[in-house]
Amino acid sequence: MMIVMTPGASTEQIDAVRERLATTGVHVVVMPGELTTAIGAIGDPQGVAELGLEGLPGVDRVVPISRPYKLASSELSHHAPSVFDIAGRTVGGGTTFTLIAGPCTVETRTQTLSVAQAVKEAGASMLRGGAFKPRTSPFAFSGLGVEGLQILAEAREATGLPVVTELLNGVHADAVAEYADVVQIGARNMQNYALLEVAGKLGKPVLLKRGLSSTLDELLMAADYILKEGNERVVLCERGIRTFETATRFTLDLGAVPWLKLHTHLPVIVDPSHAAGDRRLVEPMSRAAAAVGADGIIVEVHEDPEAALCDGPQALYASSFAEYARDVAAHAGLLGKTLA
Ligand code: PEP
Ligand code: MN
Fold this sequence. Notes:
The protein is an alpha/beta fold. Helices cover 32% and strands 20% of the residues. It is built from 11 helices and 16 strands. Helix 3 (109-121) runs parallel beside helix 4 (146-159). Manganese (II) ion binds at residues 104, 274, 300, 310-311.
């Protein structure tokens, strides 16, 4: 932490800050400048933050130097980029590209099994599908619940694809953990800290989506909630954020991908479907995601999007998914990655 004094701060005021800092055991370095004095506090930033130095006479501001996230950081923890295994698939690490595809929502057994087969044949690495759906309106279809999880398990059985599905509420945690290979935390729950801790304890990899209006620092602190439970397999997902632009459903923040690559060791994937809200944009945005270095994509696919109960306009047609997958694989290939 750095404590910046006001230009007129007296020697007594500087000494008072120095004495307060000394009570926390940090190493204190006083740096007099031409106009102002800065005091560096090296060590426990949390302890320094809790001193409330902003209120002392002569203190202008207290500035954190290190990043607020710890376990997700590539700076503070050990870390080369994380690579891990999810049900036999490698995620992260710079040589594989994880293509997760499937319906927004499990609607029926037939719908789910047929789309699972189509994405499997086209080279997808995992199957996505929601059984518990967060819906903006409480009157919209909110998923089949446990029956949906059972259908997903059947689709895994039929295709061999690991299953990614959302945990919406801690009360469903045991059921989701029983059937899912990857537990998704949706954008709307990124800051549901109690749910993050529950997800962290399940012993399953977690796909953590960025909140609709969350900064990347907040995303990484949310990841820390999962990591601190001893769960190292966290995959981050950029899925578009709220901006003044309404032409697309959300604004895909592609800069987030290389920024996250610099600041965290965790794998980063992109969801072009929810960002776009329109299937015509999904393929070009997917190419871009591959080109900026994403470790994968999670994308919505449906056999009959016009009849979908949720997010039909953004779903790719299952019949053209193979072509899409070839195109995305070619772009991932430009960065030396192959479909996992
Ligand atoms: C989803 O993946 O189906 C979903 C609801 O995504 P998000 O949480 O990003 O809106
Ligand atoms: Mn959806």
